[in-house]
Design goal:
Length: 318
Amino acid sequence: MMQSSVFAVNDEPYCIWDFNLERQAQKFLEGIDPDYFEYVFNEHVEAVDEARAVMAIKLSLHHATETMFSMIGAYVQAPDCPQAWLAKCSNSTLRKVVNRIANSDKSLIVKLLVREVSWHEISQFVFRHYMPRTDRQKTTIEGFADFWARMAADFLNQDSVDEYNAMKHGFRTRSGGFGLSIGKQEDPNTPAPPEKMKSLGSSKYGATFYKITPINSNLGNHHIQAKTISTNWSLDRILQQHQLVYMSINNILTALKIANKIGSKNCRFLRPEGEVDFFSPWTHSTGVASMNINVGIDQQQINWISKAELLDRLKSIQ
């Protein structure tokens, strides 16, 4: 007999059909390898080529963070059919779901029996089978809930979104951070001397990339400009975040396995040793985290030719 399960991806409803949905979900979850991200981390953390290793770990952190929030979304909205939810959720939709959880949006459609949509409530469900009714369970719930909230802010930051896209699509980033200082000029035509400059932050690690945007979106998207964006990274923050995201993926996968009746021998929970480790990544800062300094384009000098005219020009040179 055919089985079905109704679920939503953000606000979009779906119904999945199969002869044995429970077994399908089990096979899917058993095939996920959470240790992949730990493998990538270990392969690069001691690498000789530091610049490329840091880039690889940062890219892995972006990928792992996206995976972590995707699994949380599946756990909240479709715990009985995560294979379907993960396949149907786009990156832009995932950010909408994460934003709604971050804002405790009561209108989010959920199948997990939470009292409220929040990181703390979700964390309580994830860890309800971990050392029940102990202080260790309580601090674990609170620690991961706070960590997910902080990572959600990073995940939703537009510079972070643009950086990840630039790194994974065409690998169009230049490695290396930047420094930014300000100082008062005694004369408008003379730069302030170095000894009067005050640093706002710097890092040797980071990325610079172009973001392509419409010159005037009201006049269409075919006339564009390339804006330069630079980001700074704290290596210590990246390394610590990566480890906690890896643990989170493992723990959410364990919660999904338990929800789908997979034996406990295939389940495990991971957490850092001390409570302070949940917050430690944010004790490391580069000061200024990103910079976007670009020359404005005088739109009076733009010849606003239409899409059809652009195509005609291209055809004329063939």
